[in-house]
Amino acid sequence: MFKIRLAFLLVIGVLIAGNASAQAWQEVDPTTLGWSADRLEAARRQSAALKPTAVMIVQDGRVIASWGDTSRKVNVASVRKSLLSALYGIAVAERRIDLSSSLADLGIDDNAPSLTATEKTATVRDLLMARSGVYHPAAHETGDIKRKRPKRGSHPPGSFWFYNNWDFNALGTIYRQQTGEDIFQSFEQRIAQPLAMDDFSTKDGRYAAEELSEHPAYPFKLSARDAARFGLLYLNGGRWGEKQIIPASWVRESTTPHSWAKRIRQGYGYMWWTLPPDTWGPDAFYASGYGGQVIAVIPSKRLVVVQTVDLKQNASGIRTSAFIDLLKGIASASP
Predict the structure, then answer these.
(1) Within 10 Å of residue 244's Cβ, how many Cβ atoms?
(2) Mean pLDDT of all residues in 279-305
(3) Which phi and psi (to 5°) does residue 29 adopt?
(4) 328: pLDDT strictly greater than 70
């Protein structure tokens, strides 16, 4: 418990000293809020065996515990998709993007073999749900996605869910095309600055292009403490202090399961994963990236849990299932 407490105090000190204008994390002794010190320490030991870069546990905006280097920025892999989803919520509210627009409407195509007329009927909403039916090779794909990708033309747009990097990358192109804004500059100006993130800058994003597709991926680097602010924004329905950063209606819609990944009993919204309510209570969701990058939001406990993993230090990473087990241990320690 002493190690958890020490890590927590270091986080508070850095936040207050490093950014006096930020909404500093409030110092709390978790036991005064009804947390079990023994179970929290057991969760820390469980986490230590997994070798994350950092873990941060926040309840109602107060740091309950943290360990590792919460200021270290790492590539958060597919968490990038949930970050872009937030930007879409803002753009849709500002009427700069219409979810009913089709790929044909927007002039979206790809390298040969180019998209068919049927594939071009997929809408922006279909892409957000990973239901485009466009199974064109994509940049930044994992080997697992490449192996499991359905055949071109096997499913009409909107009819079938497949975790598809083509959809996610094309959404990046559509965002830049329709808003005239760079993704990373948008994130800094529209989200990072209002939330007073400590570490993020536009230099922490890059475009990853490959010859097989004209739509690049857009990897982000984030620190655990900045990721925790993003999770807290979603826990509070898109509101930060007195300002509504992301429409509350978008937060609800994007974290509602529109599809189900039956093998793992989880749902998929608009580039967010959702957790089964019988275990986690209503409306629990998380952003997930390869190697163990996670921002989990459990509204029933007013809880945000972040895990980051630097794959240069832990090449094997951490499986999502191992994080879910850790999350259960953390939740069991909470009141």
Answers:
(1) 14
(2) 97
(3) -95, 115
(4) yes
For the stretch 96-128, pLDDT in tens is 999 999 999 999 999 999 999 999 999 999 999
pLDDT tens for each residue of 203-217: 999 999 999 999 999
Helix (H) or strand (E) holding 86: helix 79-93
Measured distance CA(85)–CA(186) in Å, rounded: 12
Q: What is the DSSP string of 194-263?
A: TTT-SS--GGGB--EEETTEEEEE--BEE-HHHHHHHHHHHHTTTEETTEESS-HHHHHHHTS-SEEEGG
What is the C-alpha separation between 266 and 284, in angstroms, rounded? 10
CA–CA distance, 180 with 173 (Å, rounded to integer): 10
User: Which CATH architecture describes the domain 75-227+234-275?
Assistant: 3-Layer(aba) Sandwich (3.40)
Cβ–Cβ < 8 Å for 192, 200: yes
Give the mean model confidence (pLDDT) for residues 218-245.
Answer: 98
Return the closest-CA partner of residue 217 out of 162, 274, 175, 155: 175
Percent of the chain as helix, strand, coil, to the nearest 5: 40, 20, 40
Q: How far is CA 223 from CA 17, 55, 230, 327, in A?
A: 17, 10, 11, 19
- Residue 143 carries which DSSP code? H
Q: How is the chain split into domains, by residue range? A: 1-18+37-50, 75-227+234-275
> What is the DSSP-derived secondary structure letter of residue 138?
-
The structure tokens listed for 171 are: 């959404």
Residue of 59, 78, 60, 61 whose CA lies nearest to 15: 61
Per-residue pLDDT band at 265 (split at 50, 70, 90)? confident
Record the pTM. Answer: 0.92
What average pLDDT does the segment 274-292 reach? 96
Give CA–CA dist 244/242, Å, rounded.
7
Nearest alpha carbon to residue 306 among 24, 72, 49: 72
